[in-house]
Amino acid sequence: MKLKLFFVTFIALLCAAQVQAAKVRVVTTLTDLADLTRNVGGEHVEVFSLATGIEDTHGVPMKPSFVPVLNRADLVVLVGFDCEHAFLPALLEASKNPRIQKGKPGYVDCSQGITPVDVPKSTDHSEGDVHPYGNPHYLLDPVLAKTAVQNICNALVAVAPQFADDFRANRDAYLAKLDAKIAEWQKNAASLKGVKFVSYHEHWPYFANRFGMVYFGTIELKPGIDPTPRHIEELVSSMKAEHVSIVVREPQFPEKVPALIAQQTGATLVKLPIMPGGVPHTDTYIEMMDYIVQTMVAAIK
Ligand SMILES: [Zn+2]
After folding, report:
1. What is the pLDDT of residues 96-108, one digit of tens each?
2. Quick one: 212 and 250 in the same domain?
3. SS3 of 78, please?
4. Are residues 70 and 177 in the same domain?
5. Which among 73, 93, 193, 289 could disulfide-bond with 212, CB atoms 3.0 to 4.6 Å apart, if both were Cys?
6. Three-state DSSP state, 246
């Protein structure tokens, strides 16, 4: 009897281990991609995000603990357009995982199918420009986030075709939910049309295009390059002349300079997340977009 119980327990444990092993192991660079992957992958994925939400999307600090996680990963999901240039190539090399290297099916570049804006004439990192292939912050446009969802779904189907039906059903359900939210956000953001704003880093061109806002400029001199006193002076005087009403500070940048600019121009300072987890109550992509739209609308009232 005891022996029988032993075997039953043993087999149950073995089955549990197999179910665990059967999950697709996904590493995402950022938290928005992690949330989108969880929505498509459902119970068949185990997702780990390198970022927690408060980091600079171009400079997630590299931890030694990332290496074994990447070594075991079936997929690495990234923004692309070299957004992760400062940390991902080095981590992929250290991972010694051939499945997730650039060009392999396990390397999931979510920018496939997206046309970048603000593409510079030269793709040179030497000047510190962190947007060498155009602006990589397309996930702040929920319509473009749908392309990322599709790319994630395609990669999951390719790596685990046995779950293809579930992945496609999850994708369709999530896209339907997102479409309903997009309609709601556009309705709620009606008052934002034509509203001028600046931000610290150039995170917002896709968001501005989607919601009809005017993206007036950035506090940074160029993406990834600190402002000079002269640049701030010029920005303040042009903001005053053009009645710019909102200054956006992203969580990874200090408040001092944005607060000073808001004070000097009479604009409203708001702190907005650029990925889920950047500020409290933004744990999912949809919660984050809710928060951004509500905060922008409240800033002009
Ligand atoms: Zn950027």
Report:
1. 999 999 999 999 9
2. yes
3. strand
4. yes
5. 193
6. strand
Q: Where are the alpha helices (DSSP H) in 160-284?
A: 164-188, 205-211, 229-242, 256-265
CA of residue 136 to ligand 1 center, whole Å? 6
Rounded-to-integer distance, Cα 235 and Cα 241, Å: 10
Is 2 within the bounds of a domain? no
Q: Is the dihedral of CA 137, 190, 235, 254 positive or negative?
A: negative
CA 156 – CA 134 distance, rounded (Å): 27
CA-closest candidate to residue 110, choices 137, 87, 73, 74: 137
Average pLDDT over residues 139-146: 98
Name the helix (H) or strand (E) containing 24: strand 24-28
Could you tell me the distance, in angstroms and rounded to a whole number, from the CA of residue 137 to the centre of ligand 1?
6
User: Pairing state of beta strands 246-249 and 268-271?
Assistant: parallel
The residue segments making up the domain with residue 115 are 19-184
User: What would the pLDDT profile of 9-24 be if each residue is shown by its tens digit?
Assistant: 555 555 444 444 589 9
Gyration radius (Cα) of the chain, Å: 22
